[in-house]
Design goal:
The protein has 640 residues and is mainly β. It has a single domain, classed as Maltoporin, Chain A (Beta Barrel), CATH 2.40.170. 4% of the residues lie in helices and 57% in strands. It contains 4 helices and 40 strands. The strands form 6 sheets. The protein has a 22-stranded antiparallel barrel. Strands 3-8-9-6-7 form a 5-stranded mixed β-sheet. Strands 26-27-31-30 form a 4-stranded mixed β-sheet. A hairpin with a 4-residue loop joins strand 18 and strand 19.
Length: 640
């Protein structure tokens, strides 16, 4: 009955639905690289920005799908169930090397570094922006590999989303917006449940205490679930937002043998308040945020052969918090020079990380409670002289467990004309080790932290050409990065997982990104090339797990005022023991003023999608994502 109510207005004939005159690419702006929104051709960083509605037209329906469509970015499952984001070959299983932002606010776990990717639904997301590489001195820890900013909707209409697919996935989402005088009220929520697919894990380890006939391979049903609630309030000079989520993804935990089936469960709450106003010295912004974020992992044979248990934090994670306060002042010194100064203080804390049996009894503590503080100050001059723009700045970081450091940024943008520029960019990113990397101790010699581990730094040089006109958008950039004291997790000769700093290494590569739209057609094409990809390099242990090439193609076409067809192709070249991946998606959307009805197919070629092990960088070991499965789905959006 409910479906019929939604479908009736959708099937009504209407000739004023899709605007055949697509948006002007010259107006595309980003927020992630500077203090104010600006066109990509002008921004002093390499930035990719996608509206999620545009990506849905290509058959991409999750944040993971969108990130995979960014040149040089690969998202994959790990054995334990995280969604590891690789940017230019820089990766860590719990995403400690990539800074995740929700509307510009950091959102990550103080203990492990995980992010809430599974609980970021399209229902209340407007667009996604990505900086490849460190990119800016305004960002602190976790920004050594890159920065991802998820920007929520500010739409004038409210909507309900319902979706179902051939994996028995159920999705329900709500977005509601209302203005009360000077108050802007926005609310979102979602519930997602996927029954899962059969995935095969191969060449799994055999712990010494397990039976010798324990199989090396296992096929299990991988399920995913997530729920979230989001609220945003905005006044004339202030903003407040709150996000709560929980998610879970099946995998192999503890020793990650075939007997260690586990479910990675995330719980997170982020609350952020911001005050801003113009004062005689410039634009002043003050923010405060609180992030409670923790995990628990019910695991088979966690406490020994056939003895189940749960890895969890004490008191249901109530001590796993990040508190942050920041102040920035952007001052116009002259008509050509702006001077940005800022200060941040961040407190991180975590409770005891425990192994608990099925009766709730604490058997052992893998990591004791810890806390640390990070102070940072930054200064940046933005100078424009004719066709030239210089952005020069630095960031000072003082982490009481990882030491002090200076980070530099230099950007030169030369404007050829209104639509073209050439950029020379240099930036440095800092990544302090998290509590797990320093202090974890899972007996008997399963995982061992390293109290002496150093903070890592990634330095990047880039040369960029950008074209941004009404119908065409093109970016070509070559880069070279240096990784110093790279934080690395690996399995040693005794089978123990340990954390260490590797030797310094370099990476070189090329990214190309092109878009075209005119009248009824929108077209995307991008590729990335990593010189060290899929190579065995002594000082760069992770290079073998990096694809040499990634390629994305996509297009959507307005057949009529109400009917749109679209599709896309994603290619990831072979790496280590994983063969090349080819994912083909398609989407058909019928829309009228009351909403839209979409039918989509994912992995149309039924490719066997497997990834190498980037959790422990173990060779000849595969992790499944969408093995041999095509997914047919339907999505209904009703606007009100």
């Amino acid at each position: 009955m409910l479906l019929a109510t939604f479908c009736q207005p959708l099937l009504a004939d209407n000739q004023e639905l899709f605007d055949l005159k697509l948006s002007d690419l010259a107006d595309l702006k980003v927020n992630i690289a500077s203090s104010d929104p600006e066109r990509i051709v002008d921004t002093p960083a390499v930035v990719t920005s996608y509206y999620v509605t545009t990506m849905q037209n290509l058959g991409l329906n999750t944040l993971e799908d969108v990130l995979n469509f960014v040149p040089g970015v690969v998202v994959q499952d790990t054995a334990i169930g995280t969604k590891a984001v690789m940017i230019r070959g820089i990766v860590e299983a719990f995403n400690q090397k990539v800074l995740f932002l929700l509307d510009g606010t950091p959102y990550w776990q103080p203990a492990h570094g995980g992010n809430p990717m599974l609980a970021m639904p399209f229902t209340y997301i407007e667009k996604v922006e990505v900086i490849r590489g460190p990119g800016a001195v305004i960002y602190g820890s976790n920004a050594s590999g890159g920065v991802i900013n998820v920007i929520t909707k500010n739409s004038a209409s409210s909507s309900v989303d319902i979706a179902y697919d051939s994996l028995s996935s159920h999705y329900l989402g709500l977005y509601y917006q209302k203005k009360y005088s000077s108050l802007d009220f926005r609310f979102g929520a979602h519930d997602f449940n996927q029954d899962g697919y059969q995935g095969t894990f191969n060449n799994r380890p055999l712990p010494p205490i397990y039976p010798s006939d324990t199989p090396n391979n296992i096929t299990l049903n991988k399920q995913q679930k997530s729920q979230s609630v989001w609220l945003a309030l905005k006044g004339d000079s202030w903003k407040f937002s709150s996000h709560y989520f929980k998610s879970q993804n099946d995998g192999l935990a503890a020793a990650a043998s075939t007997l260690n089936l586990g479910t990675l469960k995330y719980h997170g709450t982020l609350m952020q308040a911001e005050m801003n106003r113009y004062i005689p010295w410039g634009y002043l912004k003050a923010t405060a945020d609180i992030n409670n974020f923790y995990l628990e992992i019910p695991t088979q044979s966690l406490l020994g052969f056939n003895i189940n248990g749960t890895q969890q934090f004490e008191d249901q994670g109530e001590k796993n918090n990040r508190y942050r306060f920041s102040v920035s002042l952007n001052s116009p010194i002259t008509e050509s020079i702006d001077w940005l100064n800022g200060f941040e203080i961040e407190q991180r804390e975590t409770g005891d990380y425990q192994n608990v049996n099925d009766s709730g009894q604490v058997i052992s503590t893998s990591m004791e409670a810890h806390e640390k503080q990070e102070l940072a100050a930054y200064s940046q001059a933005d100078m424009r002289f004719g066709a030239s723009r210089w952005v020069i700045g630095g960031r000072y970081v003082d982490n009481d467990l990882a030491g002090k450091d200076w980070l530099m940024r230099m950007s030169y943008v030369y404007t050829l004309n209104k639509n073209q520029s050439i950029k020379v960019l240099y930036s440095e990113g800092f990544n302090a080790p998290n509590f797990v990397q320093q202090f974890i101790e899972i007996p008997p010699n399963v995982v061992k932290g390293n109290e002496d581990i150093k903070a890592e730094k990634v330095k990047t040089w880039e040369m960029v050409y950008t074209l941004q006109s009404r119908h065409h958008f093109f970016v070509a950039n070559i880069y070279r990065l240096w990784a110093e004291d790279f934080i690395f997790r690996a399995v040693n000769e005794s089978g123990i997982v340990e954390f260490t700093n590797t030797q310094d290494f370099t990476r070189e590569g090329l990214d190309l990104d092109y878009r075209f739209n005119k009248e009824a057609l929108e077209f995307f094409a991008n590729m990335s090339w990593a010189y060290q990809g899929n190579k065995t390099i002594e000082e760069d242990h992770t290079a073998l797990f990096v694809p040499k090439y990634t390629t994305n193609l996509g297009a959507s076409f307005n057949v009529t005022h109400s009917l749109k067809l679209g599709g896309g192709w994603l290619h990831i070249s072979e790496r280590e023991s994983a063969h090349a991946i080819n994912l083909v998606n398609a989407n058909v959307t019928y829309q009228n003023k009351s909403g839209q009805l979409s039918i989509y197919i994912e992995n149309a070629l039924q490719d066997d999608v497997n990834h190498p092990d980037v959790q422990n960088f173990s060779e000849n070991r595969l992790v499944p994502t969408k093995s041999h499965h095509s997914i047919l789905g339907v999505r209904l959006t009703y606007d009100f």
